[in-house]
Amino acid sequence: MHMNDTIVALATAPGVGAIAVIRLSGTESIRIAATCFDGKDLLTQKTHTIHFGNIKDGDEIVDEVLISLFKNPNSFTKEDSVEISCHGSQYIINRILQLMIKQGARLAMPGEFTQRAYLNGRFDLAQAEAVADLIASENESSHAAALNQMRGGISKEIKALREKLVHFASMIELELDFSEEDVEFASREELKELIKGIDQVLVKLIDSFQLGNVIKNGVPVVIVGKPNAGKSTLLNALLEEEKAIVSDIAGTTRDTIEDEINIGGVKFRFIDTAGLRETTDQIEAIGVARAEQKMTEASLIMYLFDLSTEGLDIILDQEQKLIEKGKPYILVGNKRDKVESEPTELLENEHYISIAAKQEVGVIELKNMIFAKSQMSNFKTGNVVVTNARHHQSLINTQNALHDVVRGIDNQITNDFLAQDIRHSLYYLGEITGEISTDDLLDNIFSKFCIGK
């Protein structure tokens, strides 16, 4: 990658639309756009201004456009930047891109605009990664988590931890310079207390990854029960579409079926599974095994049963199995329209709700219960939540390195080894925000972005 190049790419989604936006960034971006623009002289215009005119290829008018100017350092990349708003014809887009390239620009690599913003100090690496998460957010909770990170939520936490450690690291490094005089500039007990405090913050951040992963990828909810309990009917009712095949024949669903819906601003992934029963059918048996596997992976289990046919002892026995799995669960009694009354033991159970899936009765109440049982209501917009697996691993590495520091103090290891362990912890913290980075790491991160961002 050459930072001196002027880059160009389509910034809006590909495909036919009313308008499209083509973005340029680099020292030559305004000059390149000006050579093809029939309108005001862009080279003499102020930053953050918009200009109407034509993009021309020689004497041929390609399109009427609006051109927005952003002069360094007041742009996304902190470079001179231009955004061309044209009509959303793929032909027009390609013609304008070809013209920009002909005048000296090159096509941008995936994520190169954001990478330049990071390299030019617009924000740190954690904030840059949040840009991709913000673009990919599909619901209120994932949007809030990404926006918090992009505004520096986790970066502020990491910066505060690093500053505290850097002070002690410098004191211990200073002791190395006076090793022959046997002086102590950094109190070992104070260092242990500091690490204890930092460890508490790290534990909070590391533990938040489970919630962050769910926010980013959706809460996995598995629907289990015996064949013909109405699992596929319930899935269709939750999704409000005919996603799963519904039949009176037991064992229709032989594999897992998944789809997503938004409840309370949170994405939930519902998984319909094969009916739980003993079977000699080899294919159905594989489906049952997959159902068992999905239960171990789920954040919430819904056990669906037919109120008109399933006995209370069987239901309570199944509930005990769910309790042993240690996961939140809901007992869902289906076909309540076919029974005159429901067992008192179930009505008094806080995990129980009854519905009539075919008639879509009680489905809204069930959705509310799903949201409550998922505990996603605990997530607040301002919370710092780790959603990135790379950050999670770096935090774990930091914690392990700090534990090494404490063990070193207790074992009275020499200052050079103690300083090395502190350097390790600072290194891992620096990986998160990009204070410590490599070209390979940056290429790997930004290659996952869309082109034009």
TrEMBL record:
Q: Which UniProt keywords apply?
A: Cytoplasm, GTP-binding, Hydrolase, Magnesium, Metal-binding, Nucleotide-binding, Potassium, tRNA processing
Q: What is its main location?
A: cytoplasm
Q: Which residues are listed for GTP binding in this entry?
A: 228-233, 247-253, 272-275
Cofactor or coenzyme needed: K(+)
Task: Identify the residues that bind (6S)-5-formyl-5,6,7,8-tetrahydrofolate.
Answer: 23, 83, 122, 453
One Gene Ontology term of the molecular function aspect? hydrolase activity
**Assembly and oligomerization:** Homodimer. Heterotetramer of two MnmE and two MnmG subunits.
Please report the name of this protein according to its UniProt entry.
tRNA modification GTPase MnmE
Gene encoding the protein: mnmE
